Structure formats: C-alpha cells, structure tokens
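Researcher: Re-running this chain for the archive, since the previous output was lost when a drive failed. Same request as before.
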Amino acid sequence: MAAAGDESAAAAAAAAAGGAAAGEAAVDSKDLQQQSKALDKLTDRVEDRQLDSSRVQSAMAALASSKEADWNAMRLREKELAAVKINPADVEIIANELEMDKKIAERTLREHKGNAVAAVRFLLR
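Model: Regenerated structure tokens:
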C-alpha cells in the first residue's frame, strides 16, 4: 500500500508540475505576442513613410534654381564692384598702413565706393 501511496503522490506532484509548466507557457506566449506587436509597430512606421519622387524632384529643382539665382546675384555684384573707380594710391596707402594684402584693400575700397575713410573705418573695427 505504501507503494500505491507513493505512486499517487508522484502523480499529484507530476500534475502540479505540469500545471506550473502550462502556466509558464501561457506567460511566455503572452510575452512573445507583446514582443511581436512591438516589433510590428517599429517596422510598420517605415512602410507608412514612402518618399514621393515628384516631391523630391521639385525640391531638387527649387534648390538648383536658388543656387543659380545666388550665382547670378554674385556675378552681378562683382560687375558692380569692378565698375567702381578707385584711386590706386588709396589702395597702396591702405595696404601699407594696415599691413594687409593689396587685393583685400582694393576689394574693401570698391565695396565702399572708393571712399578711403569709410574703407579704413570698416577695416579697423
């Protein structure tokens, strides 16, 4: 009889262990489902956000036209500066007294429309 009691106790322990394993399996499957949903949320966002090629092309065209407009404005500014009459003696004096390159002195003088005093004040500030 003791053997029969041991068998029933072993069967009860096995049933209890099986119930615990079933409970753990349910918890594990819930965790796996939650992880799967979290992963789907991360990957779904990439699919929702597709690039529109026409928008990209229009943006690139706008950038190109803006760059071309800036280039044309710079060329026009250089033409205006080249048309300014300056005294070569003023360039020489500014370059020597402020110990700078003659090109910088000439450019600054042209930007100030040949006014040597304004150019020097600009360079000294």
